[in-house]
Amino acid sequence: MITTRVDALRIMGLPVGASSLDIKNAYKELSKKYHPDVVGEEYSGMFAQINEAYDFLMKHPAVSRKVLGNDEKAMQRYANQRSNRDKAKRYEFKDRMRKKEKEAKLEKAAKEARRKREEEKAIKLKAEQEAERQIKAMEMAIIISKMIGEK
After folding, report:
1. Which sign, positive or negative, has the C-alpha torsion 128, 132, 133, 134?
2. φ/ψ (deg, to 5) at 136
């Protein structure tokens, strides 16, 4: 039973830093070489080990890490740098969200201002129309009163 990535890589004849492409290529070559249909039943154990190693490597992919060794200060600096990058990304995200909210508020205020201007124009137009109607009514009343006065 394979329990570590190093064991699985050793079975497949690969170095510790092998990429997933290297693993796939090695699996193809080894499975062709040790397949029971090709070499017979004597290598079926080896073929099973290759399959088990490949399955293990696919289920447990390599975690890429920055190699810091045993230097505690370097590890702390690396953690701080990562933390600072994460904070910066959060601040950038929050700033973008604030800008979007501000733009949305400004757009809403602009729409409200346009609506109010249109309402004011409509009220002014109605007032002008009413004034014109009253002027015409007064002119008619004057004309009528002159006609009545002449008789």
Report:
1. positive
2. -65, -40
For 15, list phi and psi in degrees, rounded to 5: -75, 165
Can you give the C-alpha Rg of the chain in angstroms? 43
Closest to 31 in 3D by CA, of 13, 4, 7: 13
Torsion angle in degrees (nearest 10) through CA of 70, 71, 72, 76: -120
Region for residue 107 given its phi and psi (left: phi exceeds 0; alpha: psi -120 to 50; beta: otherwise): alpha
CB count, 10 Å around CB of 21?
8
pLDDT in tens, 84-126: 888 888 999 999 999 999 999 999 999 999 999 999 999 999 9
Residue 7 CA to its chain's centroid (Å):
38
Angle, CA of 22, 27 and 32, to the nearest 5°: 135
Are 32 and 89 a contacting pair, CB within 8 Å? no
**Whole-angstrom distance, CA of residue 52 vs CA of residue 10:** 12
Asked if 14 contacts 22 with a C-beta cutoff of 8 angstroms, the reply is yes
Q: Please list the ranges in the chain whose pLDDT falls under 70.
A: 63-72, 74-75, 151
Contact (Cβ atoms closer than 8 angstroms) between residue 74 and residue 68: yes
